[in-house]
Write a structure and sequence with these properties.
There is one protein chain. This protein is of the alpha+beta class. It has three domains: 14-158 and 236-268 and 363-442, Cysteine proteinases (Cathepsin B, Chain A, Alpha-Beta Complex), CATH 3.90.70.10; 159-230, no CATH class; 270-361, no CATH class. It is 32% helix and 23% strand. The chain has 14 helices and 18 strands. Belongs to the peptidase C19 family. It holds the Pfam family UCH.
């Protein structure tokens, strides 16, 4: 009979769900999103800092293998242990995590974070950069990783500045040299600064006044700093806030300052360090050129094959292959490893670089996290963290019985995906959203950027 059913229709074992009908917690669980953090009353400054630091995978490992005496009950040890427990919880589940224990210890380390607003009766907003500093200072005391000659923070997050002081008023006076460590570099901002690199130059070359032994009085000096050691993880602080005495606030500079996804620090190095890092730097540049050449060839071959199947002649094929991105036709081309690049001979590193665990052997970095601020002064507004999604993280399944009205195919292109951590709300954004964080208006603006040394593997 026409229209008859060949077999019985069974009811689905699970009712079908759509993302639009699910709670945030259900969506986070099904999509296996990273964990968000509950805002415990103006604690976004802490949440955003923690999400950025959690992108440092070696930190989680070091926390779980801490060599500090477990019987030590100092406030720094308590904060370190609570950070270990918090990161372990965050990395094992999706949804929202309550960071109360860590917050209690943080406020013991920095009592200023416990300040209450008299009018509202709730805790005041705090500076995320100050929070960043407080956590790293505590970890430098409370965290000792195995097989490291120094503490974890000094190994993986600290560099060395070599500063030369030259007297401008008496060029015959011999220059003096000093060395100091740093846990982040500053990007100074004025009307001439449009790029992060310009702001770094301003902070590394400054005019100062100090006592001149040859002149017997204070004189003007040029202080030129160069980097003598680069850490694997480099934090850069955009100096966007300045004190407005009339209004008694730290006002914000909203000027647009662009920052790169890949950062080459060669121009800021001492000649000695630059020479030591040259082999790895040249290797990475050569590998990049080979990969790009292979990608271009593969795009041309793919376009030529597609056009052949469509009946287009070879001249049109060649023209199409050279057009803009040759259609990012496929993210698969960009993701496939290059056999040519894998065949490149690995560089021979300087022995002092090999033994310096936690350093950057090339001077070249990739962006992995951005801490942003939206608002007009440092003690108000809102902080958010944006963290690059690693390619091995699972985001390719919606789970059984779940449907979506949007296309998930693009979400598998991990190299261009980032997590947006807005306290307990976590979402996935494209890299194009990160490019919008350079300032210029009332939008989320980069305050701290975190870079990781490019891998030689």
């Amino acid at each position: 009979m026409i229209g008859s059913v060949g077999g019985s229709v069974s009811r689905p074992s699970k009712p079908q769900k759509f993302l639009e009908d699910m709670t945030y917690e259900e969506v986070a669980k099904e999509l296996k999103l990273a964990s968000g953090l509950t805002n415990l009353g103006n604690t976004c400054y802490m949440s955003s800092t923690l999400q950025c630091l959690n992108s440092i995978k070696e930190l989680t490992s070091a926390l779980n293998h801490n060599q500090i005496d477990p019987n030590n009950s100092s406030t720094e040890i308590k904060l370190t242990n609570s950070l270990r427990d918090l990161f372990n919880t965050m990395n094992k589940k999706s949804g929202t995590v309550m960071p109360m224990a860590f917050l209690v210890n943080l406020r013991q380390i920095n009592p200023g974070f416990n300040e209450i607003d008299r009018q509202s009766g709730i805790h005041k907003q705090q500076d995320a950069e100050e929070c960043w500093n407080s956590i790293l200072s505590s970890l430098s005391i409370g965290l000792k990783a195995p097989d490291l000659p120094r503490n974890f923070v000094d190994s993986y997050l600290s560099g060395e500045l070599v500063t030369t002081y030259q007297c401008d008023e008496n060029p015959e006076e011999p220059p003096t040299i000093s060395t100091e460590s740093f846990r982040k570099l500053d990007c100074r901002i004025d009307k001439s600064v449009n790029y992060l690199q310009q702001g770094l130059n301003m902070s590394l070359v400054q005019k100062i006044s100090k006592h001149s032994p040859s002149l017997g009085r204070d004189a003007e000096y040029t202080a030129t700093s160069r980097i003598g050691r680069l850490p694997k993880y480099l934090a850069i602080n955009f100096l966007r806030f300045f004190w407005k005495a009339k209004e008694n606030i730290d006002a914000k500079i909203v000027k647009k300052v662009k920052f790169p996804f890949e950062l080459d620090m060669t121009e800021y190095l001492t000649p000695e360090l630059s020479s030591k890092l040259k082999p790895a730097r040249e290797y990475l540049n050569k590998r990049r050129d080979v990969i790009e050449s292979d990608r271009k060839r593969m795009r041309m071959e793919l376009v030529a094959e597609n056009n052949r199947l469509a009946g287009v002649d070879s001249k049109a094929s060649s023209s199409a292959a050279n057009s803009s991105n040759a259609a990012a036709t496929t993210s698969t081309i960009d993701e496939e490893p290059s056999s040519s690049s894998q065949a490149l001979q690995k560089p021979t590193l300087d022995p002092s670089i090999v033994t310096d665990i936690g350093c950057n052997p090339s001077g070249m970095y990739e962006l992995i996290a951005v801490l942003t601020h939206i608002g007009r002064n440092v003690n108000s507004g809102h902080y958010i963290a944006w963290v690059k999604k690693e390619s091995d993280e699972n985001f390719d399944s919606l789970g059984s019985g779940v449907s979506s009205s949007f296309n998930m195919e693009s979400s598998n292109r991990d190299s261009n995906l980032w997590y947006k951590f807005d306290d307990d709300r976590v979402s996935i954004v494209d890299a194009s959203e990160i490019q919008k964080l350079d300032g210029g208006g009332d939008w989320h603006t980069a305050y701290i950027t975190l870079y990781r040394a490019k891998s030689l593997d």
